[in-house]
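The protein record reproduced below.
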Amino acid sequence: MEQDIQQASATRLENIFQQLAKLKANGCLQLSYNSIIFFVYFNEGKLIYATNSLAPFERLERHLRRLSNRNSNLTNKVIKEARQKFRNVLESYTENPSDYRGLMWLTSEQKYLSKDEAITVLRRATREVFESILSLPEPLNYSFVEQSKKLVELCSFDLDSYLKQCQKRLQAWQTFSYHIQSSYQRLYLANSSESTIRNLTTEQNETICKLLKGLNFRQISALIDQDELIVAKILHSSIINNTVLVRSRKPPFDKLPILPKTQNLFEDVSVEDLFKNIDSEIEKSSEKTSRKVNSDSKETIYALEKQWKLACVDDNLNIHEQLKNFLDRKIFNISFIKEPMNAFAELIEFKPELILLDAEMPNINGYELCGLLRNHYDFKHTPIIMLSGEQGILNMTKSRLAGATDHLIKPFTQSSLLNVVFKYLQ
């Protein structure tokens, strides 16, 4: 019997799951949060699968990509096939989710995955969704839709055991909570020429540092075939000393809940116990961590080869030197333009993805140049950051009226520069 979406003011999520398991329910539990709908599927009270309306095929493809480190059949073309075959129609998710159908099709019909491999993907994808579900603030909006026809079953999980596993993982994430609020936060290397990630070999350092260009913890996990918590633990000390910068989540992942702050997710467990298995996994797979990531992955190619094109128009050569010291040349391809009268032609030729523009220059100032750039079709949407030695509402207003995207006060620090640059470079 289908229930209307209701406010779970007195019912905790744990109680809802316990009740569904006790009743041996068949159907789909739906939870809504921040315009996202979570779908949890049950056969006879056993957990079958969990997904949500937020980029479900991105999640499936990412976990397939992680498996591709071991299964050479999973080329980038194959990984995309499920998305192309099954339309992501939200209305059909209560009965038969498109991403689940895609996984079953790749396994049963196309034979790209063995059953064990498919179960691995299903388990990891479901666990990722559950970690978000268990981070939802209460009270919850939820409904349960009974189904006469069960979801085709690849495997099932004991709900109580599965919840405990996911809760322990969330408690492990809490050990990093001062610096990490979400596994979807993006990671950047402040300066690769001076970076060393502790407890890794030189080759392992080179491999993982190539990925620190805006990928999040889960994307890096897929590319190096390691658990997300392992990635967080490896990078944590470098995050603390600002060798690795943690930045905000890229839309649409900013809609997901952040990691819970409460320390009462379950019974007390020591940090050593939480990471016991992770440490052993690091030791067992050190050779695997250092191998080159799968070249068939579009995301990997982007991570290894992408250089952002940044232009700086400023007649002060000290600013040029400062940028050279602050911005890693392996990550940024920088064009330094001293003569503002030549800037327009040089910028058209260089085609930068972001422009730093000095407000006060001889012959033509930054505000005038910014207006000219905004009138050219190549630069209508290019982020333009105005550099100014003076702060105040007047300068900010002049920048905005000229068409600047943002402003940065000189002298600036490396941190303030990277903050504004990474804010507009995705």
